[in-house]
Specification:
By secondary structure, the protein is α+β, with helices and mostly antiparallel strands. The chain is built from eight helices and 14 strands. The protein folds into two domains: about 190 residues, Fructose-1,6-Bisphosphatase, Chain A, domain 1 (2-Layer Sandwich); about 130 residues, D-Maltodextrin-Binding Protein, domain 2 (3-Layer(aba) Sandwich). It starts with 9 loop residues before the first helix and ends with a helix. It binds 6-O-phosphono-alpha-D-fructofuranose (P6P).
Protein backbone atom coordinates (compact mmCIF):
# COMPACT_ATOMS: atom_id res chain seq x y z
CA UNK A 1 0.00 0.00 0.00
CA UNK A 2 1.57 3.28 -1.10
CA UNK A 3 2.37 5.88 1.55
CA UNK A 4 -0.29 8.25 0.21
CA UNK A 5 -2.97 5.66 0.88
CA UNK A 6 -1.98 5.17 4.55
CA UNK A 7 -4.51 7.66 5.87
CA UNK A 8 -7.43 6.53 3.69
CA UNK A 9 -10.59 6.68 5.77
CA UNK A 10 -13.57 4.42 5.13
CA UNK A 11 -15.58 7.44 4.01
CA UNK A 12 -12.94 8.27 1.38
CA UNK A 13 -12.98 4.67 0.15
CA UNK A 14 -16.77 4.69 -0.02
CA UNK A 15 -16.51 7.84 -2.15
CA UNK A 16 -13.84 6.20 -4.36
CA UNK A 17 -16.20 3.22 -4.79
CA UNK A 18 -18.99 5.59 -5.82
CA UNK A 19 -16.75 7.05 -8.53
CA UNK A 20 -16.38 3.52 -9.93
CA UNK A 21 -20.15 3.47 -10.53
CA UNK A 22 -20.89 6.25 -13.09
CA UNK A 23 -24.63 6.02 -12.51
CA UNK A 24 -24.23 6.48 -8.74
CA UNK A 25 -26.29 9.26 -7.15
CA UNK A 26 -24.42 9.33 -3.85
CA UNK A 27 -27.34 7.76 -1.95
CA UNK A 28 -25.52 4.51 -1.24
CA UNK A 29 -22.51 6.55 -0.11
CA UNK A 30 -24.73 8.37 2.36
CA UNK A 31 -26.23 5.12 3.61
CA UNK A 32 -22.86 3.48 4.14
CA UNK A 33 -21.54 6.53 5.97
CA UNK A 34 -24.54 6.42 8.32
CA UNK A 35 -23.83 2.74 8.88
CA UNK A 36 -20.24 3.67 9.78
CA UNK A 37 -21.56 6.07 12.43
CA UNK A 38 -23.73 3.29 13.86
CA UNK A 39 -20.68 1.02 13.96
CA UNK A 40 -18.67 3.61 15.87
CA UNK A 41 -21.47 4.03 18.43
CA UNK A 42 -21.86 0.27 18.91
CA UNK A 43 -18.08 -0.19 19.12
CA UNK A 44 -17.85 2.35 21.93
CA UNK A 45 -20.62 0.57 23.84
CA UNK A 46 -19.19 -2.93 23.27
CA UNK A 47 -15.80 -1.77 24.50
CA UNK A 48 -17.39 -0.23 27.59
CA UNK A 49 -19.71 -3.19 28.23
CA UNK A 50 -17.36 -4.68 30.79
CA UNK A 51 -17.53 -1.48 32.81
CA UNK A 52 -21.03 -0.18 32.23
CA UNK A 53 -24.04 -1.98 33.62
CA UNK A 54 -24.97 -3.25 30.16
CA UNK A 55 -23.74 -6.83 30.33
CA UNK A 56 -26.11 -9.67 30.87
CA UNK A 57 -29.64 -10.43 29.89
CA UNK A 58 -32.24 -7.88 28.83
CA UNK A 59 -35.07 -10.09 30.01
CA UNK A 60 -36.40 -10.39 26.43
CA UNK A 61 -36.24 -13.21 23.87
CA UNK A 62 -36.06 -12.70 20.07
CA UNK A 63 -37.63 -14.50 17.10
CA UNK A 64 -34.88 -17.09 17.38
CA UNK A 65 -36.04 -17.84 20.93
CA UNK A 66 -32.64 -16.69 22.24
CA UNK A 67 -32.15 -14.59 25.35
CA UNK A 68 -31.57 -11.07 24.06
CA UNK A 69 -28.47 -9.51 25.60
CA UNK A 70 -28.67 -5.85 26.52
CA UNK A 71 -25.97 -5.01 23.94
CA UNK A 72 -28.10 -6.73 21.29
CA UNK A 73 -30.94 -4.37 22.08
CA UNK A 74 -28.60 -1.38 22.05
CA UNK A 75 -26.99 -2.37 18.74
CA UNK A 76 -30.35 -3.05 17.13
CA UNK A 77 -31.81 0.25 18.25
CA UNK A 78 -28.68 2.15 17.19
CA UNK A 79 -28.80 0.82 13.63
CA UNK A 80 -32.56 1.27 13.33
CA UNK A 81 -32.36 4.88 14.57
CA UNK A 82 -29.62 5.75 12.07
CA UNK A 83 -31.27 4.01 9.13
CA UNK A 84 -34.85 5.19 9.75
CA UNK A 85 -33.89 8.83 9.38
CA UNK A 86 -30.94 8.74 6.93
CA UNK A 87 -33.26 9.26 3.96
CA UNK A 88 -31.60 6.48 1.94
CA UNK A 89 -33.57 3.44 3.20
CA UNK A 90 -37.16 2.43 2.46
CA UNK A 91 -37.37 -0.72 4.63
CA UNK A 92 -35.25 -2.76 7.07
CA UNK A 93 -35.04 -6.31 8.40
CA UNK A 94 -33.21 -7.20 11.60
CA UNK A 95 -32.33 -10.55 13.16
CA UNK A 96 -33.91 -9.12 16.32
CA UNK A 97 -37.29 -8.23 14.81
CA UNK A 98 -39.94 -10.67 13.57
CA UNK A 99 -41.36 -8.30 10.95
CA UNK A 100 -39.98 -5.68 8.54
CA UNK A 101 -39.11 -2.30 10.06
CA UNK A 102 -40.44 0.86 8.41
CA UNK A 103 -38.54 4.17 8.19
CA UNK A 104 -39.78 7.54 9.39
CA UNK A 105 -42.48 8.98 7.07
CA UNK A 106 -40.88 11.42 4.64
CA UNK A 107 -37.46 9.80 5.01
CA UNK A 108 -38.02 6.96 2.53
CA UNK A 109 -35.03 6.27 0.28
CA UNK A 110 -34.05 3.86 -2.47
CA UNK A 111 -32.33 1.05 -0.56
CA UNK A 112 -33.38 -1.89 1.61
CA UNK A 113 -31.09 -3.08 4.40
CA UNK A 114 -31.04 -6.38 6.29
CA UNK A 115 -28.76 -6.77 9.27
CA UNK A 116 -27.75 -8.87 12.24
CA UNK A 117 -27.03 -6.10 14.74
CA UNK A 118 -24.75 -8.09 17.01
CA UNK A 119 -24.06 -11.62 15.82
CA UNK A 120 -22.43 -13.96 18.31
CA UNK A 121 -23.88 -11.98 21.18
CA UNK A 122 -23.92 -15.02 23.48
CA UNK A 123 -20.16 -14.42 23.61
CA UNK A 124 -20.50 -10.85 24.92
CA UNK A 125 -19.90 -11.68 28.57
CA UNK A 126 -16.70 -13.63 27.86
CA UNK A 127 -15.05 -10.97 25.70
CA UNK A 128 -15.09 -12.99 22.49
CA UNK A 129 -15.26 -10.98 19.24
CA UNK A 130 -18.80 -10.29 18.00
CA UNK A 131 -20.06 -8.40 14.99
CA UNK A 132 -22.64 -6.55 12.95
CA UNK A 133 -23.44 -8.03 9.51
CA UNK A 134 -25.27 -6.03 6.82
CA UNK A 135 -26.72 -6.57 3.36
CA UNK A 136 -27.99 -3.77 1.09
CA UNK A 137 -30.29 -4.03 -1.94
CA UNK A 138 -31.69 -1.40 -4.31
CA UNK A 139 -35.44 -1.14 -3.74
CA UNK A 140 -37.75 -2.76 -6.33
CA UNK A 141 -41.00 -1.21 -5.02
CA UNK A 142 -41.82 2.09 -6.76
CA UNK A 143 -41.71 4.62 -3.92
CA UNK A 144 -42.71 5.43 -0.35
CA UNK A 145 -42.41 2.91 2.47
CA UNK A 146 -40.68 -0.28 1.25
CA UNK A 147 -42.05 -3.79 1.46
CA UNK A 148 -40.79 -7.29 2.18
CA UNK A 149 -40.22 -7.75 -1.58
CA UNK A 150 -37.49 -5.12 -1.42
CA UNK A 151 -35.67 -7.41 1.04
CA UNK A 152 -36.40 -10.84 -0.47
CA UNK A 153 -33.93 -10.45 -3.35
CA UNK A 154 -31.21 -12.88 -4.43
CA UNK A 155 -27.72 -12.34 -3.04
CA UNK A 156 -26.46 -11.58 -6.54
CA UNK A 157 -28.64 -8.43 -6.41
CA UNK A 158 -26.87 -6.99 -3.35
CA UNK A 159 -25.30 -3.58 -4.04
CA UNK A 160 -23.20 -3.67 -0.87
CA UNK A 161 -22.48 -6.07 1.98
CA UNK A 162 -20.09 -6.39 4.88
CA UNK A 163 -19.57 -6.59 8.60
CA UNK A 164 -18.05 -4.77 11.55
CA UNK A 165 -16.16 -7.00 13.98
CA UNK A 166 -15.79 -5.77 17.56
CA UNK A 167 -12.69 -7.54 18.85
CA UNK A 168 -9.16 -6.63 19.94
CA UNK A 169 -9.80 -3.77 17.54
CA UNK A 170 -12.92 -2.77 15.64
CA UNK A 171 -12.62 -3.56 11.93
CA UNK A 172 -15.13 -2.81 9.18
CA UNK A 173 -14.97 -5.00 6.07
CA UNK A 174 -17.26 -4.24 3.12
CA UNK A 175 -17.69 -4.52 -0.62
CA UNK A 176 -19.79 -2.63 -3.17
CA UNK A 177 -18.85 -5.13 -5.86
CA UNK A 178 -15.44 -3.59 -6.58
CA UNK A 179 -13.27 -5.71 -4.28
CA UNK A 180 -13.15 -6.02 -0.50
CA UNK A 181 -11.52 -3.53 1.83
CA UNK A 182 -10.93 -3.58 5.60
CA UNK A 183 -10.73 -0.56 7.89
CA UNK A 184 -9.54 -0.44 11.49
CA UNK A 185 -11.08 2.04 13.91
CA UNK A 186 -8.63 4.42 15.58
CA UNK A 187 -10.64 5.23 18.71
CA UNK A 188 -8.36 8.15 19.52
CA UNK A 189 -9.68 10.05 16.50
CA UNK A 190 -12.93 8.12 15.91
CA UNK A 191 -12.03 7.21 12.32
CA UNK A 192 -11.83 3.93 10.41
CA UNK A 193 -8.53 3.86 8.46
CA UNK A 194 -7.74 1.52 5.57
CA UNK A 195 -5.82 -1.41 7.05
CA UNK A 196 -6.67 -4.30 4.67
CA UNK A 197 -6.79 -3.02 1.06
CA UNK A 198 -8.14 -5.34 -1.63
CA UNK A 199 -8.53 -8.41 0.57
CA UNK A 200 -8.01 -11.72 -1.26
CA UNK A 201 -8.85 -14.88 0.70
CA UNK A 202 -5.98 -17.44 0.42
CA UNK A 203 -6.98 -19.90 -2.28
CA UNK A 204 -6.63 -22.78 0.16
CA UNK A 205 -5.75 -23.19 3.82
CA UNK A 206 -4.95 -25.61 6.60
CA UNK A 207 -7.94 -24.70 8.76
CA UNK A 208 -11.50 -25.92 8.98
CA UNK A 209 -14.11 -24.28 11.19
CA UNK A 210 -17.11 -26.35 12.34
CA UNK A 211 -18.81 -27.35 15.58
CA UNK A 212 -17.65 -30.98 15.87
CA UNK A 213 -20.24 -31.61 18.59
CA UNK A 214 -22.81 -32.08 15.79
CA UNK A 215 -20.77 -34.72 13.90
CA UNK A 216 -23.35 -37.47 14.60
CA UNK A 217 -26.04 -35.35 12.96
CA UNK A 218 -24.13 -34.43 9.81
CA UNK A 219 -24.97 -35.94 6.45
CA UNK A 220 -22.34 -38.48 5.34
CA UNK A 221 -20.92 -36.10 2.71
CA UNK A 222 -20.13 -33.52 5.41
CA UNK A 223 -18.59 -36.09 7.74
CA UNK A 224 -16.51 -37.66 4.96
CA UNK A 225 -15.23 -34.21 3.92
CA UNK A 226 -14.25 -33.23 7.45
CA UNK A 227 -12.53 -36.58 8.06
CA UNK A 228 -10.66 -36.15 4.76
CA UNK A 229 -9.30 -32.80 5.97
CA UNK A 230 -8.42 -34.17 9.43
CA UNK A 231 -6.65 -37.26 8.04
CA UNK A 232 -4.44 -35.38 5.59
CA UNK A 233 -6.57 -36.40 2.63
CA UNK A 234 -5.27 -33.36 0.75
CA UNK A 235 -1.68 -34.56 1.16
CA UNK A 236 -0.50 -31.23 2.50
CA UNK A 237 -0.86 -32.21 6.14
CA UNK A 238 -3.86 -32.60 8.43
CA UNK A 239 -6.00 -29.48 8.78
CA UNK A 240 -6.36 -27.80 12.17
CA UNK A 241 -9.71 -26.96 13.75
CA UNK A 242 -10.41 -23.33 14.55
CA UNK A 243 -13.95 -22.69 15.83
CA UNK A 244 -14.87 -19.65 17.94
CA UNK A 245 -18.65 -19.99 17.78
CA UNK A 246 -19.03 -16.39 16.64
CA UNK A 247 -19.74 -16.30 12.90
CA UNK A 248 -18.14 -12.92 12.21
CA UNK A 249 -14.98 -13.90 14.13
CA UNK A 250 -14.71 -17.28 12.40
CA UNK A 251 -15.42 -15.75 8.99
CA UNK A 252 -12.97 -12.85 9.45
CA UNK A 253 -10.15 -15.21 10.43
CA UNK A 254 -10.80 -17.37 7.37
CA UNK A 255 -11.03 -14.32 5.09
CA UNK A 256 -7.62 -13.07 6.21
CA UNK A 257 -5.73 -16.34 6.86
CA UNK A 258 -7.68 -18.78 4.71
CA UNK A 259 -9.99 -21.53 5.87
CA UNK A 260 -13.35 -23.14 5.35
CA UNK A 261 -16.33 -22.61 7.68
CA UNK A 262 -19.25 -25.00 7.76
CA UNK A 263 -22.64 -24.87 9.41
CA UNK A 264 -24.53 -27.62 7.62
CA UNK A 265 -27.92 -29.31 7.79
CA UNK A 266 -28.87 -31.54 10.72
CA UNK A 267 -30.02 -34.89 9.29
CA UNK A 268 -32.18 -35.52 12.35
CA UNK A 269 -34.19 -32.52 11.00
CA UNK A 270 -35.98 -30.40 13.61
CA UNK A 271 -35.30 -26.66 13.71
CA UNK A 272 -31.80 -27.12 12.25
CA UNK A 273 -33.01 -29.07 9.22
CA UNK A 274 -31.56 -26.22 7.12
CA UNK A 275 -28.72 -25.43 9.53
CA UNK A 276 -28.76 -22.51 11.97
CA UNK A 277 -27.58 -19.49 10.01
CA UNK A 278 -29.86 -17.00 8.27
CA UNK A 279 -29.74 -16.35 4.53
CA UNK A 280 -30.70 -12.68 4.36
CA UNK A 281 -28.41 -11.11 6.94
CA UNK A 282 -25.69 -13.73 7.53
CA UNK A 283 -24.99 -16.10 4.62
CA UNK A 284 -25.79 -13.80 1.68
CA UNK A 285 -23.73 -10.75 2.78
CA UNK A 286 -20.76 -12.92 3.78
CA UNK A 287 -21.08 -14.79 0.48
CA UNK A 288 -20.82 -11.49 -1.44
CA UNK A 289 -17.73 -10.53 0.56
CA UNK A 290 -16.03 -13.90 0.13
CA UNK A 291 -16.74 -14.12 -3.62
CA UNK A 292 -15.45 -10.57 -4.11
CA UNK A 293 -12.31 -11.72 -2.25
CA UNK A 294 -11.88 -14.77 -4.53
CA UNK A 295 -13.52 -17.36 -2.28
CA UNK A 296 -16.76 -19.36 -2.53
CA UNK A 297 -19.99 -19.86 -0.58
CA UNK A 298 -22.34 -22.81 -1.19
CA UNK A 299 -24.93 -24.87 0.64
CA UNK A 300 -24.23 -28.50 1.59
CA UNK A 301 -26.44 -29.60 -1.29
CA UNK A 302 -24.36 -27.68 -3.84
CA UNK A 303 -26.31 -24.46 -4.39
CA UNK A 304 -24.44 -21.14 -4.72
CA UNK A 305 -25.56 -19.00 -1.76
CA UNK A 306 -25.87 -15.87 -3.91
CA UNK A 307 -28.24 -17.62 -6.34
CA UNK A 308 -30.81 -18.60 -3.69
CA UNK A 309 -34.17 -16.84 -4.06
CA UNK A 310 -35.22 -15.89 -0.50
CA UNK A 311 -38.79 -16.78 0.54
CA UNK A 312 -38.88 -15.40 4.08
CA UNK A 313 -36.99 -12.86 6.18
CA UNK A 314 -35.48 -15.29 8.70
CA UNK A 315 -35.05 -18.40 6.61
CA UNK A 316 -32.11 -20.57 7.52
CA UNK A 317 -29.61 -21.96 5.04
CA UNK A 318 -26.74 -24.43 5.33
CA UNK A 319 -23.39 -22.72 4.71
CA UNK A 320 -19.96 -23.82 3.50
CA UNK A 321 -17.83 -20.70 2.95
CA UNK A 322 -14.17 -19.74 2.59
CA UNK A 323 -11.07 -20.51 0.53
CA UNK A 324 -11.95 -21.46 -3.04
CA UNK A 325 -10.07 -24.76 -3.24
CA UNK A 326 -11.35 -25.88 0.17
CA UNK A 327 -14.95 -25.21 -0.89
CA UNK A 328 -14.31 -26.80 -4.30
CA UNK A 329 -13.19 -29.97 -2.46
CA UNK A 330 -16.27 -29.87 -0.19
CA UNK A 331 -18.41 -29.64 -3.34
CA UNK A 332 -16.83 -32.86 -4.67
CA UNK A 333 -17.84 -34.68 -1.48
CA UNK A 334 -21.40 -33.41 -1.47
CA UNK A 335 -21.73 -34.37 -5.16
CA UNK A 336 -20.56 -37.87 -4.28
CA UNK A 337 -17.49 -37.47 -6.48
CA UNK A 338 -15.18 -38.36 -3.55
P1 LIG B 1 -23.24 -23.22 17.58
C1 LIG B 1 -23.89 -17.31 17.38
O1 LIG B 1 -24.97 -17.62 18.23
C2 LIG B 1 -24.22 -17.90 16.01
O2 LIG B 1 -25.43 -17.41 15.54
C3 LIG B 1 -23.09 -17.61 15.04
O3 LIG B 1 -22.44 -16.41 15.32
C4 LIG B 1 -22.17 -18.80 15.21
O4 LIG B 1 -21.45 -19.12 14.03
C5 LIG B 1 -23.16 -19.92 15.54
O5 LIG B 1 -24.30 -19.31 16.13
C6 LIG B 1 -22.57 -20.91 16.51
O6 LIG B 1 -23.55 -21.93 16.67
O7 LIG B 1 -24.40 -24.15 17.31
O8 LIG B 1 -21.91 -23.81 17.07
O9 LIG B 1 -23.13 -22.73 18.98
Amino acid sequence: MSAKRKGITVSRQIMDDQLLHPQATGELTGLLNDLVVAGKIISAEVNMAGLADILGQSGRTNIQGEDVQKLDVFANQTIIRRMEQCGHVCVMASEEDDEIIQVLPGYEGNYAIAFDPLDGSTNIDVNVSIGTIFSIHKRISPSGQGSVEDLLQKGTQQVAAGYIIYGSSTVMVYTTGCGVHGFTLDPSVGEFFLSHPNIQVPVRSMYYSVNEAYADRWFDSTRNYINHLKRDGTGSGPYSLRYIGSLVADFHRNLIKGGVFLYTRDKTSGEKAEGKLRLLYEAAPLAMVVEQAGGRAITDDGRRILDIEPTSLHQRVPLIIGSKQDVDLAEKFLRGEM
